[in-house]
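Input.
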Amino acid sequence: MSPARQRRTVVLAGTAVAAGLVAVTVVAFFVGSSTVGVGEFWTLVIGGEITDSARSILINVRAPRVVAALLAGAALATAGAIIQSVLDNPLASPNIIGINSGAGLAVLLMSAAFPGALALQPVAAFAGALVTALIIFALSLGAGTSRLTVVLAGIALSTIFGAGMNAVLIVNPDVYVGASTFLVGGLAGMTLAKLTWPAAYILIGLVVALFLAGRLTILTLGDTTAHSLGLAVGRWRLGLLGLAALLAGAAVSFAGLLGFVGLIVPHMVKFIVGHDARVVLPLSAALGAAFVVGCDLVARVAFAPYELPVGILMAFLGGPFFIYLIIRNRRVGDG
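Output.
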């Protein structure tokens, strides 16, 4: 693809993703099981007067949920794009290699030790995610370790951490309000207070990720080329993996074990615009945010008056996509 055509593709993709993000975010505010609609939403936006019940629904129910979906989607998609590049593994994502589960176990353990300490949840989630990321990174450095071996090791870690989470909940069923939703990933009952600290970590992480996108692009060129360009490959891979752990852990701390965002979205972006991280990371963040908002919207209205945790819907979408990637990469390897 010529540079001029590449630029046009990036501009068109960026415009489409931005328009889709705005559209799905607006729709998520006024579509729901209640009677609040477009009129009340627009009146609130322009500073007009609406009923107390409509204001409460928009500000206290829908706004926190939409903001949570935006943050979780952007964080997990960006983390997935970073992980795939750092590990040079298209099958990798925060949930596949166990980072989400490690963060989830840390959140439950922290909640058992310090009930009600919301500010500590993102810190604990980051610690759990980072430990898992370091284990996976060490495995990826092993001589002869294949991409599939790393993924299988991540799945094994997810199983172990999942057992740990279930053990914590059996011993102390009240350790985490909404634990069943947390284990599959969901945004019901979200409050702005619960988002304060995770939002700070995610926004800082996204800014740092965009600032370091050039370094990530150099890493994708291969160790030899990166070394020749003066990049300390090992340190940068480790640092960027830590950044991915920060983003994924912060998202898990309030959204639970949302899966496959970091797998599906980066692949969609790379299919359209290529592998330049300077383009992939911002588009992944925007598309990931739109993706989670859209999935959550479908999950809460498609089965009304019942609500499906968004993590279940994502599992239905992500499972077949993961199988497709395994088959595709096996064919590539055989070829």
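The chain has a mean pLDDT of 87.
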